[in-house]
Amino acid sequence: MADETAVPEAPPQDSRSEAMAYVIGVAGWIVPGLGHALLKMWGRAAMCFLTVGMLVILGAEMRGNLFDSAARDAFDSLGYLADLGTGTFYLLAKSVETNGADVSHAGGDYGTRFLATAGVLNLLAALHAYEAARGRKA
Amino acid sequence: MNAEMGIKLGHLQSMLLFALLISIAFGFLSRRRQIDRVKYIVWSLFLFLLIGVGIGWAMYPFSY
Q1: How many domains is chain B built from?
Q2: Which residue in chain A is spatially nearest to B1 when comparing CA positions?
Q3: Complex ipTM
Q4: How far apart are CA A53 and CA A48, in angstroms?
Q5: A109 in contact with B at a CB cutoff of 8 Å?
Q6: Does A19 touch chain B if contact means CB atoms closer than 8 Å?
Q7: How many CA atoms lie within 13 A of A137 on its CB side?
Q8: Mean per-residue pLDDT pooled into runs of 10, chain A (138 residues)
Q9: Which of A11, A88, A104, A128 has the highest CB neighbour number within 10 Å of its CB?
Q10: Is residue B24 part of a domain?
């Protein structure tokens, strides 16, 4: 008689689709919208790419503070993590913001928020793509 | 846009742009049907602006 309390082994297909979901999540983080594009969710992919891209370019053009790994306090570290959320767009922001940050006026301060929000928004979109790949309602 | 100085936006312009972009992203991520997305974007944008202006007015007495 079979042991009814034994946990059945997950079929190999499940582990493969779980790995695929991770790949899609990471792809969505590295290039905004790529996760949704791999799932053929074209509208969401385009909107993620455009909104995150616009927030990054506007934030950098407004000379917002783009944090780097040389954090001086916890807020700098959190800002760096948020900025890293934009994936490769972090490098785009670096290349746009050639004159460095200027938060001595309101525009620069808003730019800092734009950049951090772009990162957090992209992480949210990547998580959404991951969940959609796992078959959760999205 | 000035290449040296970057983009110069006022408080209201920045808030409008921010609210619009975030509302569009939220609308597309959280709703499937086009009509639901449009409704969500409009409602989210309205709330962003209402709360933003509301907090601004609430802070006004402490601005001196």
Answers
A1: 1
A2: A61
A3: 0.84
A4: 8
A5: no
A6: no
A7: 3
A8: 51 77 96 95 95 95 89 89 95 87 83 95 96 84
A9: A128
A10: yes
